[in-house]
Amino acid sequence: GKDTEAEVTIGTAGATAEQEDVHVTATGLYGSAIGSGIKDTKVTIQGHSTIRMESKRKNSTAIGSNYGNVEVNIKDNVTIDAKDEGTSIRYEGGGSGIGGGDIRGDSNRKVVVNIDGGTNGKVKIGDYIEIVGEYGAISGTEVNIGDNVLLKMKPWGSPDDKYINVNGAEAAVGTRNNPAAGGLVNTIGDNTELWYYKRGVQHKIVHGKNVCTKNEINRQEPTCTEEGWVKYGCTYESDRHATAPEHIDEWTETIPALGHDWKDNGDANHICDRDHVTAAHTYGEWTTVKEATCTAAGQKQHTCTECGHVETEVIPATGHHWVDKGDGTHTCPDCGATEGQPFNTNSALELRVVDAEGMDQPFTVSQNGTLRTYTGAYDTATLTGDLDTLRYLQDHGAQTIQFVTNGQTSSFDINDLLAQGSGSEVFYLTHRGAE
Hints:
Blueprint: E1 6-10, E2 22-27, E3 32-35, E4 41-45, E5 48-54, E6 61-64, E7 70-75, E8 77-82, E9 89-91, E10 98-99, E11 111-116, E12 123-125, E13 131-133, E14 138-140, E15 142-145, E16 149-153, E17 164-166, E18 169-170, E19 172-173, E20 184-188, E21 193-198, E22 201-204, E23 213-220, E24 228-235, E25 250-255, E26 262-264, E27 269-272, E28 278-280, E29 287-290, E30 298-303, E31 310-315, E32 323-324, E33 329-331, E34 338-340, E35 352-354, E36 363-368, E37 371-376, E38 381-386, H1 387-395, E39 400-405, E40 408-413, H2 414-418, E41 426-431
């Protein structure tokens, strides 16, 4: 409409091609194809919508309004193109492709253009035929271009043509040293491409999230222990209609060190496949694979956390822990075994062999000259008795006491021990097996 306020909504917000497929052909003459020629207007094109514009060139804006306050929202999966091949979305006499036409005459006028494909959409404007406007392909006081947008524009024909016109000046895209030199496109999103044609050649507008064509200049590969790097350079596509933001032409990116790739070397070390250095295994905690019993050894393992090498060790049999039953036998409470007690153990005038709890253990005794030997049945055992018993044994020819268990032998001179005590004091000589 030319003289009426307008609010136009085309499509359903967020709709996909499976949910809707809206097609609209729009023609504008002395007004707007979609919007209002004079009054305030709001246009929302969304969902999965395709708009085909017919070219009408007098005092028209394709989408928006030449006058009044304007808000144009184009989002989701919208496609806007010319109706026929060979034509452009062209609007003259103060018009523009999208937005508000000539906005120089009214400082209070607000024209906002928002174009955003969002996270999952893709807005395509001019992919088939470029949009053109005498006062800018897009013209407004605020222009926001978000994510997933493809926008193609074409010059009107004058050296002063504007592609994106913000506040009456060619818009810079990105960061400018002097914002007063022209308008600014407020935001540029990810996966967004802005293109323009000049003398039949297509150019990409440089912006902060599409800054350059990235070229590798040199690199240093990382090692197991040292970082690497890649040096890049930029090739910019820009002229006066595509002001480049501030940028660095060359930069270096770090490649993290690889870390060693350890493999089991079959011995106490592991070896790195990459640089062939060796290092000792780094083991985790021991895990019991098989419990030891009174009579059978067990097994434990731990694994290298770097290469997976497994080390195995034997857990010694615990041995019986005999308890005297008072009937000439003794019983092991751990496994239930019962045996007759050895003939020559723990007599009144003899030393004793006991376990850690003081329970009697079997042993044998022999004497060769002045050497009297006590042999225990288990790795861990204690030879004990009082000094009176040692005097008795000395009176019967013994001068040296020897204590033997599996893998360990110790001895002492009776006189030396008697010199350290008196009366019926008790002594202890303990052997400890592997733990």
